Amino acid sequence: MTAELVRGQNHPLDQVRLEIRVSAGAPVVAVATLVDEAGRVRGPELVVHPGAPSLPGLEVPRQAAAAHRLAVDLGAVPDDVHRVDVLLALPAGTGGPARFGAVAAPFVAVTGLDGAEVATFTLTGLDAESAVIALELYRRQTAWKVRAVGQGYAGGLAELLADQGLAEARQVANDINEAVTQGLTRSVQAPRLPDGTPTRQPAAPTQTGRTTQADPATHGGPAPHDGPAPQGTPGPAPQGTPGPVLPQSAGVPPRPVGVPPQLAGVPAHAAGAANEPGAVADRPSPSATGGPIDYTHPGRRHTAPPPPPPSAPAPQPGQPAQPVAGDATGWTMDERLYNQVWGMFEDFARTAAAYRSAVDFAETRQEKELDRILSDPRSRIGGQGDAAREEARARYGALVEQARQAFDRDVAQLTAEAEVVEPALPPAYAGWDSPVWHGYRVPMEMPMALRLGDLTLPESDRLRIPMLVRLPLERGLWIDSGHVASEAGAFTDDHERRRLAMETAVAHAARLLAAHPAGEFTVHVIDPAGAAARALAPLTDTGVLAGPPAVGAAGVAEVLGRLTQRVDLVQMAVRGGVADSLPPGFDTAQQLLVVNDFPHGFDDRAVTQLRYLADEGPSVGVHLMMVADREDAAGYGPLLDPLWRALLRLTPVADDHLADPWVGHAWTYEPALVPAGSQVLRQVLAQVAAERTKYA
Questions:
Q1: Burial category of 356 from C-beta neighbours within 10 Å (exposed 0-12, middle 13-18, buried 19 and up)
Q2: What span, in angstroms and rounded, lies between the C-alpha atoms of 623 and 615?
Q3: Residue ranges of the alpha helices (H) in 218-332?
């Protein structure tokens, strides 16, 4: 049975030797790129195009045409290839249409070698774009899936390829256009599979079949432009909703098409913050984030592919593959689990986008049908109008039910995977209620990432995706103790919110301490009025702080002055190439400053120093965690806007202020708090303190 996909929807592939058929209203160029597990095309040799039409497992046509057949053998694709993207572009300089909005919507079908269609996708909603990612074939649990993408680029192939991390994007785009305009091949030969077998000639789509496939009514309708939208391409996020995207990898700049939410990210305050690259977004527009997530850790530059992930048991016929913890690619189990969580996050985001698109289409179609019925005077006589309205409502209900069934099926698979992955997570990735903490030992090296909470969507709040932020931290954290516009926030008063915010900060600080080797992470606390003594007790009682919490104006000035001087010293040493000339006894550990009750107890000089630490500190290992209500600092006006934007905003209660970097959903964030009555946090901190004493 053919799966008629909408944008963002995926479908499993039960065979590896395939054809991809393309039909368009004008000649288009077909290109394929081989993408690694980090979401990048590592070099021009991994782009299959008319000038270089074949690679192991792939062959594309040698010229522009209105109909194409691409030969694919996924079994022959190199092991380090995580994804195969199928791209379509309007050839430049040929006198043809310059944008997809001027031609009929392209249609793409994935078929077996017998010609039977596996999945189809009509690329609706394109306008100024001249290049588009039509489909992606990607590895998932040792099997392959196809996803309908439909992400367009007004800047053409050069912009698209640059979005995929290809440094030579413009040169490759020029080579493709030159190959097409010069007509390297005057006749189109049938593409061949890697073993030399000719592929099957495509059957011309019948008028009935093509109309059915192109008609949105038959498959849930057109989806909004989901995914990071390039410049000039509208995104789904509401206009005027500021904020970043899910936290991105520390030190890894967002890619022009991605993030990685670290999840690897970028956040800004929900009111007035500009979109920024690199964080879990406070409801950003995908166009602000640029594109897909870069999973590459800044400190790891491997030249060889990582070992393959563990194999899952072969599924029974007709049954989905059994989930396996750590089935993603990576050099270590931690890296595999990190990438697997990212894959689950992306699948959930796109599955929800497909469902919402289908429901929106069904509603729009029903409204048009009802308007047409009401505008016809004949339908107002007798029961003809009532019957027509009932039929419209029935069609709406059938479309929504079909979309819901597909959504529930995908969520059930992801939930089963989450149930396998969660117990396998190491302490840095696990919730505080995980049994893994009872066997905690101070690590010998820093993990890839840290869990700061969970993310859910309203369509299925049972499925929780861990929010992982890459280490070392790329930006500071802001625990917002102010009013939160959510149901959870409505039932907490000011005093309770401040208490919860400080407890959240302590839990995050403890987790950071527990994630680092002994002596490699130091925590300072500023509590000007001493109001957080109770919440800070786990840190002060176990002796893991660098010193007692600083109180009063003098204490604030002393701590800020010391850390500011540290940033200056390290920056000068690094820039001068004399890192070994730092003063004797200099603490080389990462530093975290926890600030409570800002701006109380801060004068103008202290505020300036705090801004300096937020901007310059992360690059030299000095990180900031602020517990503050932005309204308390309203008197500073726009002066502090850069400070709030420089920090990843988190809330002490559930709130939907974060967004993913693919389709811009508003995700509900829940902080990673210690269960009530649990002693696990004190037990972990006691081990950290004991291990630190050994190395003192």
A1: buried
A2: 10
A3: 286-289
Calculate ∠ Cα 366-367-371, nearest 5°. 115
**Residue 627 CA from chain centroid, whole number:** 26
Structural contact between residues 53 and 150, judged by C-beta atoms closer than 8 angstroms? no
- Per-residue HEC secondary structure of 512-543 comes to HHHHCCCCCEEEEEECCCCCCCCCCHHHHHHC
Is-contact 588 638, C-beta < 8 A? no
Based on its alpha-carbon atoms, the radius of gyration of the chain, rounded to whole angstroms, reads 27
The one-character DSSP state at 459 is T
Q: What is the pLDDT of residue 489?
A: 63
Domain boundaries, the chain: 3-215
Report the pLDDT value the prediction gives residue 206, as an integer from 0 to 100: 30
Which residues, given as ranges, of the chain have pLDDT below 50?
184-304
pTM: 0.61
Cβ–Cβ < 8 Å for 553, 528:
yes
Tokens of 434: 């995980």
What is residue 200's predicted lDDT score, i.e. its pLDDT? 33
Structure tokens given for 694: 């050994």
Superfamily of domain 3-215: sav2460 like domains (2.60.60.30)
Contact 247, 265 (CB under 8 A): yes
Q: Which residues contact 655 (CB under 8 A, 6 or more apart)?
A: 484, 485, 486, 488, 489, 668, 669
Q: How far is CA 90 from the centre of its chain?
A: 29
Burial of 423 (0-12, 13-18, 19+ CB in 10 A): exposed
